[in-house]
Queue: 2 jobs
Job 1
Amino acid sequence: MTLPIGAIGDALPGIAAMPAMPGMRATDAVRGTEGASGEGFAAALGRAVDGTQALQAESKTFAIKAVTGELTDIHAATIASSRAQVTLELVAAIRNKGVDAFNEIMRMQA
C-alpha cells in the first residue's frame, strides 16, 4: 500500500495537517510537537483512531443498506469501504512501526 504524502490527511482525518499555534514554528506544527510530554502525538493518534472508526461506521451503514435493498449509489458504498480498509491498514502500519521502535529502544543498552 502506497499513498502520496498529500493523501495521508485525506485517508486519516485525525492526522491531517495540524494548525500552527501562536509561538510555534511551521515545522513544529507539521511535526505536531507540543513539548516533551508527547500530548501532541497522543492527540493526533487518538484523532486518527476516531477517524478510522467513523469511516468504518460509514462503510457498515452502506453495507446494511446494500443488504436491505436501500442502497442507491454503489459507487459511494465502494469508496467508503475502500477508504475504511486503507485507513485501517495505515493505522495498523503506524502502530506496528511504533511497537517496533519501542522494542528497539528497549533493546538498547544504557
Job 2
Amino acid sequence: MKSKILILSIALLLVLACKNESKSNIEFVDVESTELKNDTSSLKGTWELTGFYNYKDNIVVDSFEMNPEFRQLKMYTDTKVMWCKHRPADSSEWFGYGTYNYEDDRLIEILDFGSAVMDEVIAEKKEFTFELTLSPNKFQQIEMDEDGNRIYSENYVRVE
C-alpha cells in the first residue's frame, strides 16, 4: 500500500507540474529583508508553495514553479499543522490537519483528518516524514524513498 500512496503522490505532482509550461529553476521570493512578526527560526507561521524539485540520485534534475491557477498553503502553530490546496477548475477538495514535530533535518507530520481524498490516504498512512531544509523565510520538505534517496521536494516561502 505504501507504493500506492507514493504513486498517487507522484502522479498528483506530475499533473500539477504539467499544467505549468515553465520549467525554469525556481526562484524564491526574497523576503529575507522583510520584517516578520513570527519567530523566523521555526516553522511557526504561514507558508505558500512556490514549486517543486524532482531528484535523481539525490540531485535536482528538474524544477517546476507552482501553476498560478493553483495555491497551496501550510500553517504551523506551536504543535499543529494544517494545509489546504485551492484548485479552481476542480471540485475536489484538498486539505489535511494534524500535529507535527521537527528536529534537525527531519519533519514529521501526523494527520488526524482531511478532505475526502486525504481521508483515504490517512486511512492507510497517518505519519509523513520528510527531510527538512529550513531557513528563516523558506523551507523545503523533501520526500524520501525507502532507501533514503530524495524523490521530490515541495518548496515554500513564508507569507506571515
